[in-house]
Amino acid sequence: MKPMLSFFAAASLVAALGTASLASAQNISSQDMKPALEQLLRENPEVLLDFLHTHSETLLDIVQEGSDKRRMANMEKQWAEDAKVKKTVAVKDRPRVGKSDAKVQIVAFSDFTCQFCTRAEKTVEELLNEFSGKVSFVFKNMPLEPEGLSGLASQYFVAISLIDENMAWKFYKTLFHEHEKLLLDNEKFLRDTAMAIGVDMKKLDSVRRGKQVKAILEEDLKDSEKLELEGTPCFLVNNLVIRGAVSKEIFRRAIEIELAR
């Protein structure tokens, strides 16, 4: 931040001096610049404030770029350690996008009621299109309230996936794309969505109360505990762990690392 503020302060000094004084401003040595800036800002603090206000979007972009670079560097250090430990999770009977033998497998641990999961779902969808044929995707349920709405949504999703995988992905997309309606209408939205995509409701109710759905959900939670995942969303990109709704650039980098590996 300090170098950036110095830049903006210098620009403010030039702006304050005006075009007529630009030549004399250029003659100020680097040694004299600091006291000149300090004096200017003490006497005219509004100069810098006005300049920053005018160029606030530029400043925010620079700050965000620096933050992303630091986070990317930290993530790559973490991934170097992640890659040393093979991570095995259950994917049998889970719906999958892409081929099971794809070079990169993304496994999501997510919650249909989580706002950050909704944001991450859009990122994953875009990257699956970008890396079509090279990446597969498996969704595992990690409801933060297993006895509440999130647990119920997971139960419906797993049951529908056992009936018809294509219907399950339609159900999945609707729940994430219409997140607010899910939170507002609760189970009514789940049932309305299932009926709208053509699910046999009697069969659905029978399957979702069965032992297989319960076993899959319990297995997903055990896998999340084994990996010591504490919040949603979390992802495995092969053996690399991504925690949270990270930027598409960071997520893409994890995929590129694994494709290169």
Characteristic terms for this protein:
alpha+beta; 5-stranded mixed sheet; elongated
Verbal overview:
It is a single chain. Residues 19-23 have low confidence and may be disordered. Strand 2 (104-110), helix 6 and strand 3 form a beta-alpha-beta unit. The chain is built from 13 helices and five strands. With 261 residues, it is α+β, with helices and mostly antiparallel strands. The protein is 65% helix and 9% strand. It is elongated.
Beta-strand content bin: 5-15%
The spatial strand order of the largest sheet comes to 1-3-2-4-5
Which residue ranges are poorly predicted, with pLDDT under 50 across at least 5 consecutive positions? 19-23
Tell me about the biggest sheet? 5 strands, mixed
Number of helical regions: 13
Strand segment tally: 5
| Average pLDDT for all residues | 87
Rg over CA atoms? 26 Å
Distance between the first and last residues' Cα: 36 Å
- Helix percent band: 55-70%
Structural class: alpha+beta
Order of helices and strands: HHHHHEEHEHHHHHHEEH
Categorize the overall geometry. elongated
Concise summary:
With 261 residues, the protein is of the alpha+beta class. The protein has helices at 2-17, 22-26, 30-43, 45-54, 56-82, 115-130, 149-163, 165-177, 179-185, 187-196, 201-208, 211-226, 248-260; strands at residues 96-97, 104-110, 135-141, 234-237, 240-243.
Summarize the SSE layout with pairings:
Elements: H1 2-17, H2 22-26, H3 30-43, H4 45-54, H5 56-82, E1 96-97, E2 104-110, H6 115-130, E3 135-141, H7 149-163, H8 165-177, H9 179-185, H10 187-196, H11 201-208, H12 211-226, E4 234-237, E5 240-243, H13 248-260
Parallel strand pairs: 2-3
Antiparallel strand pairs: 1-3, 2-4, 4-5
